[in-house]
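--- STAGE predict ---
source: upstream dedup step, 1 unique chain passed
mode: sequence only
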Amino acid sequence: MDINEKLLEAYDRAGNHSGVSGERLALRLSLLSEIGRTTDGGSCRIGYSHEERAAKDLVRGWMVEAGLAVREDEAGNIIARLPGVHHHLPAILSGSHVDTVPNGGHFDGALGVLVALEVVEAWKETNFKPKHPFEVIIFSDEEGARFNTGLTGSKAMAGELDMEQQQQAKDVHGVPFEKVINNYGLCAKSFSNAKRDFKDSKAFVEVHIEQGKRLENANLPVGVVSGIAGLGLLKITFTGTAGHAGNTPMNDRFDPLTAAGQFLYELKSLPEKVSSTAVATVGKLQVFPNGINVIPKEVELYVDIRDIYEESLQQLIDLVIAKASESAKTQAVEIQVEKKRLGNAVLTDQGLQDLLLKSVEKNGSAPMVLPSGAGHDAMILSHHLPMAMLFVRSQEGISHNPREWSSLNDCVHAVHVLKDFIEALQEE
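--- STAGE serialize ---
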């Protein structure tokens, strides 16, 4: 069974109203999923690849058919504009991305683009003319699988890309940034010209799959995002003394792995001390020399720390460092900490959040506010204009995986909520 058939199998066609077509959305999700299809049934469309280009071209064709004026900026972002009745009014923006991780799913990013486009299709079907211009945007290289960075297109559009650093970057295969971009059909030297003046923009709203289980656990199709977590990354190195596992008494050991273990156990209790939305994760740990009969000399681990509130994020970073230092002291080993901030926390615009919640209620769903632990293009645009996000329920919370899935009923529900929200925003 292909994706189109699977989506339609359990679809309640009562969702087909006000110009919205679940069948059209399902077919487009299915056709897009065929580009970069992996042997596992997933998607592989890394940023600035032929597959990402093909996906953009496919959607671009649908945009043109819908009557949108489409252009590509110098960073490869696709901007499709529907004129407003009042051309002088600032535009309302919506969209996401179509690139994926190497073996990802078919909804992450792509759904946000197609939901925004379906709003335009619904307006076309009902002959609705928005007062404000409306733009559907496909951002380039959101996932960062190409250069291990991410949000490249939105950063370029916002003028936040460090071009000196970007020009020196090489992709996962060692190919220089300039060559990758030129092979893609763009000019690396004019890449920074994608910078946009957002004075002509009213707001940005992004629809995205949740990538978690909160909505599923609450049995809700959609939820309104309260903020996008900032990210702090700590590289912590515990250093002790290597020794023979059999000939070194337990009371004469300086074992960095014991210190690391103590730290890992106590780490789980720290986030709740600062915020209900904070999290901390150790996903990578290396032991040296890593022999079965050797007391380690060194343990290197990375702590991923996130929260949607900037103040509590910094508090948690400080708590984690203090706890690591305490564990090292207890075991009489040395510690070294390297700090890196990979993104600041941002909150969604309160006015837009309230308006979006009203649209959720109007469409028959209980309002739920939830944080985003993952980064999105909306995070970058929030630095320049009011921003809101709508999450769509993810089955089992699975994402970045071929099993990633959101029902067509939920996807169509998101179209109606977004449509109502944008129409209400016309009157604000």
